[in-house]
Amino acid sequence: MIEIHPLSTIGEVIPGDDLGRLLAEAINVARLAPEPYDVLMVTQKIVSKAEGRFVDLASVTPGSKAIELAAITRQQRLGQVG
């Protein structure tokens, strides 16, 4: 049987946060007891945030290929290409 238990008490992760500690605390708050063969999944986003691996998009100048791809995907999202 598969059960999914979201850990909703973690909050905003910032650079330098001890992700292991945050996860352990959230597991305790949720009153969960990990057992053998349990799987803990986290998003890459919170790992990147804890590691300080992010870029302020305002500081990025997109190249011509990025602008072209953005236009294409925007059209696809709006159902205008096909």
**Percent of residues in helices:** 40-55%
Span between N and C termini?
Answer: 41 Å
- As residue ranges, the low-confidence spans are none
Q: Sheet bearing the most strands, described?
A: none
Number of helices: 3
Average pLDDT score: 89
Strand content: under 5%
How many beta strands in the DSSP annotation?
A: 0
Give the C-alpha Rg.
19 Å
Order of helices and strands: HHH
Structural class: mainly alpha
Q: Determine the oligomeric state from the structure.
A: single chain
* Global geometry: elongated
Question: Can you walk through the features of this model?
Answer:
There is one protein chain. It contains three helices and no strands. The chain has 82 residues and is mostly helical. It is elongated, with a radius of gyration of 19 Å. The termini are far apart. The mean pLDDT is 89.
Task: Summarize the helices and strands and which ones pair or pack.
Elements: H1 19-29, H2 44-51, H3 64-77
Quick structural overview:
The protein has 82 residues and is an all-alpha fold.
Provide keyphrases for this structure:
82 residues, 3 helices, mainly alpha
